[in-house]
Structures are given as structure tokens and as C-alpha cells.
Amino acid sequence: MRLSNSDLRLVTVNTPEMNFGNKRVPEPIAEDATRYVKDRISNKQLYLEEMGVDRYQRRLGNVWIKEAGRDHSFLLSERLIANGLGFQIFESDSRYAACLKQAELKARSNKLGVWQYSDYWLNVERGGFALWSGRLQKVSKSKQFYWWRLSDSRVVRVPKLWLDELGIETKKKGDLIELRGWVIHRKKTRYEPYMLPLRSPQILLKN
Predict the structure, then answer these.
(1) What are phi and psi of 77, to 5 degrees?
(2) What is the reported pLDDT for 58?
(3) How far is 140 from 145, CA to CA, in rounded Å?
(4) Contact 30, 18 (CB under 8 A)
(5) Segments of the chain with pLDDT less than 50
(6) Do 105 and 146 belong together in one domain?
(7) Which residue range(s) make up the domain with 136?
(8) What's phi and psi for 114, nearest 5 deg?
(9) Does residue 24 fall inside a structural domain?
(10) Boundary of a domain, candidates 117, 138, 161
(11) What distance in Å separates the CA atoms of residue 120 and residue 64, rounded to the nearest whole number?
């Protein structure tokens, strides 16, 4: 979102990109999500819960929108997810995780928006945001991380410290998982070329 003096990234939702990849083309539902946000914030009173800045100097936070004639505000992220215009993401802010989860479950069961394009989000050869699921083929560990291998080309990187803090055990070979995040393409490596580094321990509580 573009504010008057800076860009804002919502911390609890990821929407498809308008200018994705080298060809700078919209991802599925990206144009719908963009129109939805513009319609919802136009001439509305906005409340920003600010949570710092990211490495691109974008402001981070949640946006609440006050609609005329109503006593309460609504969370923009929840509306986006409920309409299938984005995915719940798990970062530092977990206060709204339960309501966002319910919104996503309903949108997913009704195959709204992004959930009509499940194969696209599972495509590991495009990088960017992905939704990975499957049974683990192998689990290994290094000094700082567990490595959950899904296939010859896909591996999930999990900080060991998170598992200790949450008091949960690592997954094992054969376990079924579903995880999401931004895929890194490791072009010159003897390991799996596509790695999904988890960005928040909150996502582990979902599995």
C-alpha cells in the first residue's frame, strides 16, 4: 500500500504480486486484490498499527478501516483473506492469527480467489511466494537448522532454536506438512535448488 509519505506492508497477509518476475506480469488474482484495496481505503478513515520498518524501508503494520455509519472498524487483512485475495502469513504479530485462520479456512473450502490456482502456488520453478505440502523424504540437521526435505528439489529450513523455544520436536521422515513463505532459488549448489526458509516460529504451531 502507498501512504502519503511511504509504502506500507501488511504483516499478516500476502497478496499476489502485480509485477512478478522478469516479465513483470500480474500473478493470479493480483489485479482483483489491488482493486479491492483501492475500493476499501478510498475516502475512508484508516487506523494504522505500526510495527517498524523492513529492509526496504517500508513501514510494517496492520490497517483498520472505519466505515461510515458503523460503530466498529474492520481489519483489512482479514477481509482480503476472507475473500480469497491473499494468504495468511505468520510473522511477529500473532494477535489476529485465530481469526485470520478461520477466514482462510472458509475461503479455501469455497475455493475463492487464490484457492482456484493451487497448482500455481505449488510451482517451485518460479520462486517468490509458495505454498508447499507433502510428506518429508528426509530430515537432517546442521549446527543451527533442521532441514526438512520434500523432494530432490525442495527443502525447508527450520531454526533449531525455535523448536526448543516452543517445546516441540522436529518432524520426521514420512510426516505430512504444509508450509508457506518465500522461496529462494539456490542456482549453484550441490543441495536442493529450492529452499523455503521459515520466517516465524508461529507457522510451526500450524503443523
Answers:
(1) -60, -40
(2) 84
(3) 9
(4) yes
(5) none
(6) no
(7) 122-206
(8) -60, -25
(9) yes
(10) 117
(11) 30
Measuring CA to CA, how many Å separate 178 from each of 64, 132, 175, 185?
29, 6, 10, 19
Query: In whole angstroms, what is the distance from residue 145 CA to residue 63 CA?
Result: 34
Please count the structural domains in the chain.
2
- Measuring CA to CA, which residue among 115, 136, 131 is closest to residue 182? 131
Residues whose CB falls within 8 Å of the CB of residue 71, separated by 6 or more in sequence, listed in order:
none
Coil, helix or strand for 56? coil
What are the grid coordinates assigned to 68, written together?
A: 461510515
What one-letter code names the amino acid at 57? Q
Task: Report helix, strand or coil for 59.
Answer: strand
User: For residue 123, what is its C-alpha cell?
Assistant: 510451482
Residue 127: what pLDDT? 82
Same domain membership, residue 110 and residue 128: no
Is the residue at 194 inside a domain? yes
Question: 115, 106 in Cβ contact below 8 A?
Answer: no
Q: Are residues 113 and 126 in the same domain?
A: no
Question: Does one domain contain both 151 and 110?
Answer: no
Q: Are 207 and 179 in contact (CB under 8 A)?
A: yes
Q: What is the CATH number of the domain that holds 81?
A: 2.40.50.90
Residue 195 forms part of a structural domain: yes
- Please write down the HEC assignment for all residues of 114-137: HHHHHHHHCCHHHCEEEEEEEECC
* DSSP per-residue codes, 138-168: EEEE-SSEEEEE-SSSEEEEEEHHHHHHHT-
92 grid coordinates = 511477529
Tell me, yes or no, whether 186 and 135 share the same domain: yes
Look at residues 145, 169, 165, 164 and name the one whose alpha carbon lies nearest to residue 155.
Answer: 145
pLDDT for 4: 62
